[in-house]
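agent: user wants the full assembly modeled, not chains individually. Plan: 1) parse entity lines 2) check alphabet per entity 3) run joint structure prediction 4) return tokens. Steps 1-2 passed, two entities, 563 residues total. Proceeding.
--- entities ---
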Amino acid sequence: MAAISARNLSFKYAGAEKPSMEGVTLEVEKGSFVILTGPSGCGKTTLCRCLNGLIPNFYSGELTGELEVDGVKVEGKSTAELATHVGFVFQNPENQLFSLSVERDVGFGLENLGVPREEALERVQWAMRATGVYELREKAPHELSGGQQQRAAIAGIIAMRPNILVLDEPTSFLDPKSAEEIVSVIAKLGHDLGLTILLVEHRLDIVSRYADRVIVMDEGKIKLDGPPREVYNDQARLIGIGLPRVTMLAHLLRKDGINLSNPITVEEASSEISKLLNK
Amino acid sequence: MITVQNVSFNYPDGPQVLHEVNLAINDGEFVAVMGENGAGKTTLVKMFNGLLKPTKGTVKIDGVATQKKSVAQMSRDVGLIFQNPDNQLFAETVAQELGFSLKNFGFSDEIIQKRVSSYLHLLDLESYAATSPFVLSGGERKRVALAAILVWDPKHVIMDEPTIGQDYMQKERLRNFITQLVSQGKSVVIVTHDVEFVAECQPRIVLLSHGTIIGDGPATRILTDQTLVEKASLKMPQIADLMNRLATDHDASREIIEVYAARDYLTKRIRKATELAQPRRGIG
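--- prediction returned ---
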């Protein structure tokens, strides 16, 4: 069973002239780590809003096609029902945290779902440990650094035990070191818990090494789809994707007639170029 | 010119955010303020238009201390674009958003109209003139917030995290735009975590950590200094990291941080290495 299965999915916002997403057909394998990218307005946010039912529950418009998430048909489901299948993490953790302590914040979603107290406590403890915020449980969210806040926000989401985690540029407010740390926490959660990760991201430099697959959308449609090494080609550049800088460099060096593969990390690029300099 | 002299700051009953900061930014200069989350970057730039006043020391804009003027007076010269555009936007349409401040500054209707339409064009917002800013995407709202400030032509332009939520093409546009502003003699200060953007623009970098300036100089020097980069919770840009690795074994240049410069350098080096490896052909 696929984690996400979309067939010919299209959506036009009420009052919009043309659809924001058109004919999206997609199967995402359980447990995979997928990057969703594309220029602003390409339809990636619209696709994500369908996955947790924000479309059509909170945004009106015309939705056509079929969508199954975690084996559940999304049509007719409330966002609360879907929350136990798909967890959402946003750009700015401050928008997701509001309680007086990390522990209460992490438990908030469970309380709303009516999970019995004993079980809720257990899950909160587990989620805080899995994201490394257990030691911070009594702190108020505003006392935490940006990276710690984002980990607390993720803890609150995984406490609801979704099988799929959708993250919308979760590192953009963080300094580079915290950003790297969050991405590795996400990758580890995916790996240890078998979660399916869908990461919406413009900055491909830090996330590419973890990805099994990159999906590039443009003008409402899926334009490229495959492993990062294959997707980061000339066509991706023409669509306006900011390739990792070492990948970009390899493209340019190949144009100069230098024999290089398509590295996606600094380590790969360094070892290949090093060999060439040793000739 | 922006002058910061021995500035310290703490929020009432709060911890000290800035310690004895000294800094001078010239007209026509482009500066990126970088540093870890909570380093004091936003606090520092909020001093530039008088939103915050130093608890100790002085901030002067073109020779006048910010204590002597109101924020409203200051903002004519210093345009501050917030990190979150929602803190700034309120009008019913994008065009009204751009016209609002001009009206307050007492410009004539004719000038307002001309300026608004020219800035809608510059920031690629023409098709949204009659749209509410609140139905636009995050990236678009950021452009509206930028246009709404630039429209009154402030001498100094301060942007807090301008690249968040912007895709690659928009960042390229922003980069060109900043170059234009700087060439008009404006000082441009950005607060940013985006090391790759900075590697491409190569501004002067002011590095803050725990409220103190720990580095100040050209991007090629600051972003290639492993110790400074670590201390400020930054990462080297990918190209700087790559060149740094190659430097150890191959004596490659360490001060390259940008893709095209790296290409020129490496193409030459690799060609040379390959030529040397070719067996020599005897002459005649």
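agent: reporting back. The longest helix of chain A spans residues 176-193. The CA atoms of residues 252 and 258 of chain A lie 9 Å apart.
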